Every structure is written in C-alpha cells, then in structure tokens.
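for the writeup, i need someone to sanity check this before i put it in the appendix. the sequnce is what the collaborator sent (i think, or maybe the updated version? ugh). structure was predicted straight from it, no edits. if anything looks off just tell me and ill rerun, i have time this weekend
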Amino acid sequence: MKTALEYSNKFDIKRLSKYCVKNIVRICNEIGPRKPGSPEELKAQKLMAKDLENYCDDVQIEEFTVHRQAFMGFIPFTVACAVASVFTYAFATPIISLILVILGFIPLLFEFVMYKQFIDPLFIGHPSHNVIAKRAPKGEVKKRFIIVGHADSQFEWTLNYLLGGIGMKIVLIPAVVGLVADLIFAIIGIICAGTNGALEAAEPRWLMILGFVVGCFFIPFQLGFLFLQSYTKSVPGANDNLTGCYVGMSVAKAMADTDTRFENTELVVICSGSEEAGLRGAKAYVKAHEKELKDVETCVVAADTFRDLETMAVYDRDLSGTVQHHWGAKHLVQNAGRNCGYDLKFESIYIGGCDAAAFTQKGIPATGFAAMDPTPPRYYHTRLDDVDHLVPEAVEAGIEVLLEAACMYDKEGLPTKSK
C-alpha cells in the first residue's frame, strides 16, 4: 500500500482545502452559531451527513441527550461558595468556611477539570447528535481508523473577547488561587483553634485578619469568573471546529474521488455533537460502541481547529493534563507529519480537552491533532472565530497529515516502542 505522499499526484490537497473552506463558509452564513444540542447543530450535521453519503458506504445520525449548561453551570455556585467562605471564616467559624470551599471545589474539579457528568441531571436535557460515516475496505475489516471533529460551537468566552488570552488568565488564575488560599486558611484556622484547647475555640485574631484580607483580595477575580462566558450567545465556530470536521471529511472525499479503498482498514469519520459541553458526543459514541471499538484494532484521531500553522501539534496529554494518550497513536500522527515535512511537537491540554480523551479513557488508542495557538488566541471561543479568520494553508496541512496517517496505519498499523 502506498503512502499519501506517494499518491501526491492523485490527492489534490489544495482542491480539498477549497472544498473545506467553501462548506465552512456556507454553514457559517446559512446556519450560523451552533450551540451544543441545538437545532442549528443538527442542521449543520445533516448537511455534513448528506455530503458524506457521496464518499462513504454507510452514514448514520445517532441521538443522545446533553445537559449543555451543566459543563459551566457550576461557576455561579463555586463563586458564591468562595466569597461566602471568606466572610464565614472571619465572622463565623473556619469549619463552615472549609465546608463552603470544598462544596465549591467539587463541581469545578469533576465538571471542568475531569469532564465528569457530575451535575448534569440538575440541568435541562436537550437532544444532540453524532454523525457517523463509514467507508469500507476492499476486504475484511481488520483495523479501523477514526477521525472525529465536533460540529457544535462554544458559548462565547466574554473574557477572552474583551481581554484576550493573557488577560483572561490574569482573571481566572487568581480566582482559582484564591479558592485554594481560602482552603488553606480554613484548614490552618481549624488546626489552630484545636490547639487552643477545643475544636470550638477561635483561631488567633491575627490569623483571622490575615485570612480575611487575603480572601478579600481575591474576591474581585472570583467575581470576574462569573463573566467567563455567555450562557445564551454562541459563536460562529469556523475554525473551532468546522475545520476539524471538514479536514476529516476531506480524507473520505479524497479516497472516494480517486476510487481508493484500503485493503483491510475501515475509515470512519465522526462529526460529533456537544464537544463544547464536555465531550458529551464523543462520550456517548464510545458508550454506545465500546464493544465494536475493542473487537477490532482501532486508532482514533481527534481533529480540532486548523488555523495557527506555526503551533500545529499532536496532543500527548489531555483533559486538563489528567489523561495521557496512546503512545502508538500519537507517534503515528507525528511520523505522518514528518513524512509531510512538518516537525510536530507533542503538546498537552492543561485546561480543557478534546474528543480523543473520551476514547483514551476507555482504553482505545487515540490522540488529538490541531493547529491552534494555546495562549489561547483572541478568536478562540469568541465571535471572531468567523470565516474571515480561516487560514487555508493550515487546513491543507491538516488534510495532508491525516491522509498520510490513515495510509500509514493501513500499511503498517500503529508504531510500537520497539520499532
């Protein structure tokens, strides 16, 4: 089996890139923003599904339920707990302060850091969908190569739009640091009160004053956390992540346009829903298809935002740094990039995650692949992520690397450490 580079005269990468841009412009102009689990998300997915029917043998749309406001819905509760803990520490007891801080931390850690569906049942459910398109090989299916991109777009991150990535961090980092400081002072206060002869005894007055002053210093940042994002207005999402969807679709289109089929590798393209609500679409897909994913050797690449070519990278760690992707999957994409002339570094997602994490958590070889400035850039999750900010060269690079990775996987399988 030849690699994509040996097919370079057969696969017209520039033509495929124009196909991507044309369809992204169409969706942004005709449909617009696509909040998780919205009619607009489904309308865009139906357009994608109809297009994929021209390149794939089987195209399905599967429904699942998303509680789209749960992922960020903890913010007002966490902020209220943080602010209240400062005043209960000073004017009541550090025990109550500690309880409030812990209550504030729980949804922050489980929902935002670990992407668990922790408080989802407290929020209204909405129907969301995954588009699953399969292109069969010539012979028996012995391997499977999945490319997943998400069709939804995020609610606008107001702080990033107003302040930029660095400015946003100047608000958010102290907000979290303040919560940690509240926790530390509450614990110290309880210990000091206990050493005074009884747990009910008051902590030293100087400690109470210090804790109160420090807590008050961080309150403005914690209140600023309330304005991280809009809860009603979503963004165009031209780059994040219509580029990822259409880069994946371009791999199937390239194979169909050249009447090419892999020998024994099934190509699957997924346009997932509700990724911006905590990877809910990918999680729903893995839950519904876990057995078949494990019955046949499978490799998954999450294609997520192709714009900032100079920072194009393969993701090593994901889900706020808590998940490490499969060695073979990430080296497959890195080697494919090298074959295409790109020096792809391994990067980590220390805040947030991509769809690959849902597969890795279930033991399915996966990695993420993107070309996005991790600062993050000002267009990220804002109204600036429109068609005027598309970079066709970055889209071309994404298509080229994923075509190469798919062909390499069909020919050689996943790399191993011994090779």
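The CA atoms of residues 82 and 135 lie 51 Å apart. The longest helix spans residues 158-195.
thx in advance!!
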